[in-house]
Amino acid sequence: MSNLIVHGGTPLNGRIIPSANKNAVLPILCGTLLSAEPIRLRGVPEITDVKKIVEVFRKLGSEVEIDFKTGILDVHHKNTHFDPAADRLPEEMRSSIMLVPGLMARFRAARVEDDVKGCTLGAREIDPHVEVFQRFGADVQRLPDGLLCTVPGKLQANDHWTDYASVTTTENFVLCAALAEGTSTLMNAASEPHVQEFCQFMVMLGAQIEGLGTSRLKITGIDALKGGEFSFAEDFHEIVTFLALGAITGGDVRVKNSQPEQFPLIDRTFAKFGVQIIHEDGWSRSVTEGGKLKVKEPFTRNILQKVEAAPWPYLPVDLLPIFVALGVKAEGSVMFWNKVYDGAMGWTSELSKFGAHAFLSDPHRMVTFGGKPLAPAEVESPYIIRVAIALLMVAASIPGRSVIRNATPIRRAHPHFVENISRLGTRIEWVEGD
Length: 434
Ligand SMILES: CC(=O)N[C@H]1[C@@H](OP(=O)(O)OP(=O)(O)OC[C@H]2O[C@@H](n3ccc(=O)[nH]c3=O)[C@H](O)[C@@H]2O)O[C@H](CO)[C@@H](O)[C@@H]1O
Ligand SMILES: C=C(OP(=O)(O)O)C(=O)O
Hints:
Layout: E1 2-8, E2 13-16, H1 22-32, E3 39-42, H2 48-59, E4 63-67, E5 72-76, H3 100-107, E6 109-113, H4 127-135, E7 139-143, E8 146-150, E9 159-161, H5 167-178, E10 183-187, H6 193-204, E11 208-210, E12 216-220, E13 228-231, H7 236-248, E14 252-256, H8 264-271, E15 275-280, E16 283-288, E17 305-309, H9 320-329, E18 332-338, H10 348-352, E19 357-362, E20 365-370, E21 378-380, H11 385-397, E22 400-405, H12 417-424, E23 427-432
Parallel strand pairs: 2-14, 3-13, 9-10, 17-18, 21-22
Antiparallel strand pairs: 1-22, 1-23, 3-5, 4-5, 6-8, 7-8, 10-12, 11-12, 14-16, 15-16, 18-20, 19-20
Helix pairs in contact: 1-2, 1-6, 3-5, 4-5, 5-6, 7-9, 7-11, 9-11
The structure holds uridine-diphosphate-N-acetylglucosamine and phosphoenolpyruvate.
């Protein structure tokens, strides 16, 4: 277990070039398996989830060269092999399940391990994925420790309408449809920026996708995908995180941001805490109105200020903990509503160790009563990337030494995170603990 020691209370100042979005990089890496041609990816971040997928590709005989200094990854799935009786896919990461379409298309068989849940955010079902595989013609059987998917021949196109807009289910549908026989349509498709980036990559490989960025995707299967080059965009999670770190510590952090058009709702959410986001010349920065975080009072009498997270174009649910951290610090009360997960809010007890007042109303809702005096503390993060970051944010805002135990999940998504925060002025270090 890796812990973070944070000496807080120093305003963060400086510039950050964000890395690529883990949730775009991973489906794209999985997508490379559908092509037998050389592919070059630029801007690949040094994160543990990427290393796990690269390791599995090498075990399966694919050629992979990766240089994390330049961010260039070359992959060629030419002499790739797969044996469902012996080969295993990576566990403890959700994206593992997106290797299934490539394996089914190439080897007519794939396995899914039982633990592909990723962050412990509550129920993370695999049924929508299984349903997609079945609709494309797969036979799915339960094994003692996972699932076995087999297909008799080419995947068969189909029309499907999912229960809800699921990010990885949408990506799995596109992966299956790209080489399927015929034209497939998905209704209630997810459209997050990372889903769009993944679709753009698939189009670069030659996939025929209509409706990119909408809730209706139409994909016409082709015989084979090409190779090519793809450069990753900046991660909006990381942009928001550094803007919020600037705001919570009373500093001035400027973050490179080539896609401010994705930000209007994110900007409005910052404004609820008295933080104005300025996008200028490809950079974004946060300015705190009156120099102090303060919750904006609604015009409607006797209601709480509120932040709701749901599938895009709502505020992305992975950003909610970052705003909870601002809620703890800002004077006033805010209700946070996680409309996606039923187990992502149970860390109020850790916040209270800092002296924060946060109340868990039910599995989906939390209220922060912010602006209370805070003191450094030793807290424990659940296995949730963005909660470890939120706890770190609170710690960075409080003068003194705090410890975030079990902060390891941060390494799943954010390369050189601690080095970046150090460069901005906060003393912070990793310590291996038990
Ligand atoms: C690798 C990757 O890309 N992971 C992201 C992806 O996970 P992932 O694709 O697993 O998330 P889903 O969109 O499938 O949602 C996860 C769970 O939330 C519940 N659910 C979701 C939406 C809904 O309208 N109703 C509902 O009940 C379901 O139990 C579902 O299993 O999208 C999530 C939601 O943006 C993010 O938190 C994850 O970081
Ligand atoms: C929840 C996340 O990832 P995963 O779905 O891989 O657990 C995340 O990126 O915040």
